[in-house]
Amino acid sequence: MNLVVLSGGTGTPKLLEGLEVIVGQERLNVIVNTADDFWYYGLYISPDIDTVIYLFSNLLDKNKYWGIRDDTFNAFEMLKLYGMPGWFHLGDRDLAMHIFRTYLLRKGYTLTAVTKYICKRLGVKANVLPMSDDHVETYVLTDIGELHIQEYLVKYRFKPKVYGITFPGIEKASATIDVLKALDEGDAIVLGPSNPINSIGPILNVKNVRSKIKERKEKDIPVIAISPIIGTKALSGPAHIFMKALGYEPTPYGIAEIYSDIISDIIIHKTDEKYANIIRRKLGIEVHLENIIMKDLDDKIRLAKKVLEIISKKSSTKQPT
Ligand code: FO1
């Protein structure tokens, strides 16, 4: 069973924790959003890649779902003394990742090669794949001006009113051959419970990814989304805010609508039963009502098991091609 999981932000890594326990890292191909990446004081920061690498190497601070557990911030304190802003915290051990990655990127290695190498050094067995080796950024147009996604999320805690969101570079960004190979060889594709606009969205908008997933779904494999929203609120972060700003209803129906051309199934929270019929009827997507809240490891394993049950049920009933 080769699983492909699209991951961004901090929601999907929780599901990855459960999947890792059940299928093992060797079976996981994680395509990661890189539109959160940015150059910060000369360092190339790749937040979503780092959360996945730290998770699989058991270094992740699981209270925050970013950075390294029990990290210190001595360099950061000195950098603030020199005038660096204090809203984006860089731990000492985390800094080593940014310094080393920047060193390799400046020598001309691709983000894919650098990620593979760092995973090897950290003993990560999962296949962690940047969505593209072409640089993509994310900006949010708000009532206090245009903000980089990290400023909007971290500095302003998604308080400013959102008028729009843009992903400079996405129109030229191509999927890597590793991403297309993983999508080709996967037995199932999972769109994790992350923000469909700025975490999963950029992955789908990289050239050839959406069409490849659509092709696989229409031909033979389950493509399953897990809603990051319960009712009209995201479990964490601004998914509902971005969806509203882009004209989608901020509900599980809106999630299904965004993914309607590429998913066969969606898992929504058991209290969202009222959306199930319209998703089935209007979008032709199978709906599974589950408890999608992941508070502890048992929750993560339980939800991961549900995903795998759906996959094996669909695969066993698949018509012989
Ligand atoms: N998130 C915060 O809320 N505060 C921070 O100071 C912060 C620093 C940081 C440093 C490195 C890194 O890889 C991630 C960091 N994050 C921080 C999380 C980051 O903003 C989120 O993981 C992504 O934006 C989620 O999409």
Strand line-up of the largest beta sheet: 5-2-1-9-10-13-14
User: Tell me, what's the shape?
Assistant: globular
How many helical elements?
Answer: 13
Largest sheet: 7 strands, parallel
Task: Determine the strand fraction and express it as a percent band.
Answer: 15-25%
List cofactors, ions and other ligands: ligand FO1
H/E element sequence:
EHEEEHHHHEEEHEHEHHEEEHHEHEH
Helix content: 40-55%
- Weakly predicted, low-confidence segments: none
Write down the Rg: 19 Å
Instruction: Report the mean per-residue pLDDT as an integer.
Output: 96
Q: Please identify the structural class as seen in this structure.
A: alpha/beta
**Alpha-carbon distance between the termini?**
18 Å
* Count of β-strands: 14
Structure commentary:
With 321 residues, the chain is an alpha/beta fold. 41% of the residues lie in helices and 17% in strands. It is built from 13 helices and 14 strands. The chain has a 7-stranded parallel sheet with strand order 5-2-1-9-10-13-14, with helices on both faces. Strands 7-6-8 form a 3-stranded antiparallel sheet. It has a two-stranded antiparallel ribbon with strand order 3-4. The longest helix is centred in the last third of the chain and has 20 residues, at 297-316. It starts with a strand and ends in a 5-residue tail after the last helix. The structure holds ligand FO1.
Which helices and strands occur, and which strands form pairs?
Blueprint lengths: L2 E5 L4 H12 L4 E5 L5 E3 L2 E3 L1 H10 L17 H8 L10 H15 L4 H11 L5 E4 L8 E4 L2 E4 H7 L6 E5 L10 H9 L2 E4 L9 H5 L3 H11 L3 E4 L2 E2 L2 E2 L4 H7 L6 H7 L6 E5 L3 H11 L2 E5 L6 H20 L5
Parallel strand pairs: 1-2, 1-9, 2-5, 9-10, 10-13, 13-14
Antiparallel strand pairs: 3-4, 6-7, 6-8, 11-12
Helix pairs in contact: 1-2, 1-13, 7-9, 11-12
The site of ligand FO1 has 18 residues, from helix 2 and helix 6.
